[in-house]
Design a protein that fits this description.
Blueprint: H1 5-14, E1 21-25, H2 31-39, E2 44-47, H3 50-59, E3 65-68, E4 86-90, H4 93-105, E5 110-116, H5 129-137, E6 147-154, H6 162-183, E7 192-194, H7 201-206, E8 211-214, H8 216-219
Parallel strand pairs: 1-2, 1-8, 2-3, 3-4, 4-5, 5-6, 6-7
The structure holds pyridoxal-5'-phosphate.
Pyridoxal-5'-phosphate binds at residues 25, 27, 48, 69, 155, 197-199, 213-217.
Length: 222
Amino acid sequence: MKNNVAENIKNIKEGLPSDVSLVAVSKYQPIDSIKEAYDFGQRIFAESHVQELVKKYDSLPKDIQWHFIGHLQTNKVKYIASYISLIQSVDSIKLLKEINKHALKYNRVIDVLLELHIASEESKTGFTLDKCMEMLSSNILEELPNVRICGLMMMATNAVSDSKLKEEFLVAYDFFNKVKAKYFYNDNHFAIRSWGMSGDYKIAIDNGSNMVRIGSMIFGDR
Ligand SMILES: *Cc1c(COP(=O)(O)O)cnc(C)c1O
């Protein structure tokens, strides 16, 4: 099957409400395909491995906003800290501290999302809701002025029914609203709800998402 990246993006965007941003997940995809999306106007791309991101960053236009969506090891933050636009997959306080440290070195503030573990799979990473609340209610964030929490990210359980997907997205949406009201009421930056991928983004949007991360539906199989 021929894969027309530009046409795929066009079709997806036509179905997106105007307040939902599209993140093109380009992991394992060749530079040429990314370039095709870029030429069509796409500017937000996401990668899940540091080495791969570094290579792609070097060879692609510098006005791309790169998001990181994979498990990020603390010892690798330094390789992306100068340019990363949003780290969506913050799953520990240790990682937050490391991001703050490197952001400070570059005299910048790095935007991040807190990743929630809501799915039933053990293999998925992220804060449990309790751990996330616990961190927010401590004063740890006050000690980390070079990270800015811009919202929440989550991945639903694989291959489950639409009603189960909806249930998981609603848990995230409800939690977002709670956290927003309690800790970020006056902070307009805390606004991103990143959930929904190729297989479930429509259900995600119906249930609070305003940022979808789409890979295979744009680029084809990995
Ligand atoms: C790979 C990946 C995606 C995109 O998945 P598709 O099913 O290809 O759209 C989204 N989010 C995360 C965290 C991913 O690792």
